[in-house]
Amino acid sequence: MRHCSVQVRGLLTREELDRYNALIEVGSYLEDQTRYDLAYPIQKEIDLLILPAIERLKDKGRARDRATAEYLESLRDGEEKEDAEEDAEEDDKEPSV
Length: 97
Description:
Layout (H helix, E strand, L loop, with lengths): L5 H5 L3 H19 L3 H14 L1 H42 L5
Helix pairs in contact: 2-3
């Protein structure tokens, strides 16, 4: 049986995780008995079961990417503001000859 990643397992609800563990156990037993014809539908069921957790992981990644973009934008805005303030200070100074 193919296991899903630790990140995906971490995002499974308690009910999904219990079902996942039970299906893995049944699938492993069937593979030990060389009943691959029966283990295949179990693996398909596991693949369907973990889809919501995969979507939650993707959403989490998208949220992290948005937060990073906002942070970088705020840094860029802060630098532009500082540059504008420095330019204004230089313009206010009278040239000494």
